[in-house]
Amino acid sequence: MTETDNGTTMKEDYAAMVEISNEGARELGFDDVGTMWRARYDLPPAEFADETDRLWGQVKPLYDELQCHVRAKLNEQYGDEVVPLDQPIRADLLGNMWAQSWGNVYDLVAPGDADPGFDLTELLVSDGYDAKKMVEAGEGFFSSLGFNPLPDTFWERSQFTKPADREVVCHASAWDLDGADDIRIKMCIKINSDDFRTVHHELGHNYYQRAYKNQSPIFQGGANGGFHEAIGDMVSLSITPDYLKTIGLLDDVPDASKDVGLLMSQALEKIAFMPFSAYSWINGAGRCSPES
Ligand SMILES: [Zn+2]
């Protein structure tokens, strides 16, 4: 079965779900469910869409250059038939099921002399990091900003590794169970750079949740959904060579000439993700509770 076939089998159910969701939204006074989702940002839904377009317009030139570069490199690899230079890039070539981040094709598209000078996954493995130590590193980052350590219950009740005896949803998520101190993460941590960043991201949710626990219940949430995501993502942007040296993972910070590789790998993750997140996430496709 191809991905297209897969979508076809879901089509009728999906259309029915859209119809039911719109009906619910109309009962709540919105035109449709999309309008309802876009109404969560302290400005009229139409203005929110315009503002998103405006902000995206600022980044799009960089995205266009990245897309053009990646397509040219993939064309070198796979040829004109698979990667025509005047067409969008086929999603199945980008190393991620949703084509939402392109980091897995780094080796194919990196500039020739762009070795970042170190491999975080290798550093974590050779330093003997396990799942708990990865989380402790994340906690250490927040402690260095002045936040209190995570409560004992966090360490007792979180899921760091995939249980051997049952199926679980491994998609990383952060939870606030009681609106007080029972914060947890649920992950199936692997010892690699991706999950090292994800730990910092998920803990961003937990620290944010704890920071608003004394507000009245109506204010116990992110300023908006995007804000909740931004806390952890901003923190994971701080996983720089300098930071890795500070926590003893890296002996020497590579000189600035190695930054091109580092910036390219960031772009493949973050810039490539932007149109995906802006034009699917804000429409609700990725919005769920808990924060993930
Ligand atoms: Zn998140």
Key phrases:
292 residues; mainly alpha; 3 domains; two-stranded antiparallel ribbon; 11 helices; 2 strands; 53% helix; 3% strand; globular; disordered C terminus; binds zinc ion
Short description:
Helix content is 53%, strand content 3%. It has helices at residues 3-27, 33-38, 45-78, 106-109, 120-126, 131-144, 152-157, 193-211, 225-236, 241-246, 259-281; strands at 173-176, 183-186.
Radius of gyration: 21 Å
| Shape by Cα distribution | globular
Bound molecules: zinc ion
* Major β-sheet profile: 2 strands, antiparallel
Query: Could you state the order of secondary-structure elements as H and E?
Result: HHHHHHHEEHHHH
Count of discrete structural domains: 3
How many β-strand stretches?
2
How would you describe this protein?
The chain is 53% helix and 3% strand. Helix 3 packs across helix 11. A hairpin with a 6-residue loop joins strand 1 (173-176) and strand 2 (183-186). The protein has helices at residues 3-27, 33-38, 45-78, 106-109, 120-126, 131-144, 152-157, 193-211, 225-236, 241-246, 259-281; strands at residues 173-176, 183-186. The protein contains 11 helices and 2 strands, in the order H-H-H-H-H-H-H-E-E-H-H-H-H. Mean pLDDT is 89; it is low at 281-290. It has 3 domains: 1-35; 40-112 and 254-292, no CATH class; 120-253, no CATH class. It has 292 residues and is mainly alpha-helical. It has a two-stranded antiparallel ribbon. The longest helix has 34 residues, at 45-78.
